[in-house]
Specification:
Number of helices: 4
Strand content: 15-25%
Strand order of the largest sheet: 1-2-3-4-5
Low-confidence stretches: 1-10, 12-18
Mean pLDDT: 87
Largest sheet: 5 strands, mixed
Structural class: alpha+beta
Order of helices and strands: EHHEEEHEH
Shape: globular
Distance between the termini: 44 Å
Length: 174
């Protein structure tokens, strides 16, 4: 079911209200093509790839969304204007063995937050993030993680996200 557009200035972001024609809704399997296209656009903007792997990246992304939207381990909320997805968000749900700081072991990883350039600074990302946080509450997730871009970091901080200590990463090469 479609959510109604925001009527006032978003209380968390302070951004102006979005167009009355804006629709927020949970993505479905029918959105996979647009979600994959937008992810390619987002990664191209952030990473500026110099290779020709875009087709393979798109195909792998398409398969990921198709599989994980279907089994509900990935949820995306989108902003739609004139039947086009103009902004997207995503959250991956997974479990780890319980720890004292997360007794349920449920973890959510926010990703794929992207608003097309012409629609930025209108509170759209804030509205999508609010919906993702509701998804985590509904699943009793006690821990939410994300990697923030420089552009997105102020939004997450407004919602109470903080830099985490002790995280490390290792990339395998083949």
């Amino acid at each position: 079911m479609a959510q109604q557009p925001l009527k006032n200035i978003d209380k968390n972001s302070g951004y102006q209200k979005v167009s009355e024609a804006m629709e927020y809704r949970r993505a479905t399997i029918h959105d996979v093509d647009q979600l994959a296209e937008i992810r390619v656009e987002m990664r191209n903007e952030r990473e500026n790839p110099q290779n020709s792997g875009t087709a393979e990246f798109y195909a792998n992304t398409y398969r990921y969304f198709e599989q994980h939207l279907a089994n509900d381990s990935f949820v995306a909320w989108v902003a739609v204007q004139d039947e086009e997805i103009i902004a997207t968000s995503g959250i991956v749900f997974y479990s780890i063995p319980p720890v004292y700081s997360n007794i349920t072991g449920s973890v959510a990883y926010i990703m794929n937050m992207y608003t097309k350039p012409a629609h930025r600074n209108k509170g759209i990302a804030s509205a999508l993030l609010s919906r993702l946080l509701e998804e985590t509450r509904a699943r009793n997730c006690m821990k939410i993680t994300l990697n923030a871009s420089e552009m997105g970091k102020p939004l997450y901080e407004k919602y109470g996200f903080q830099e985490a200590k002790n995280n490390m990463e290792y990339s395998l090469t083949f």
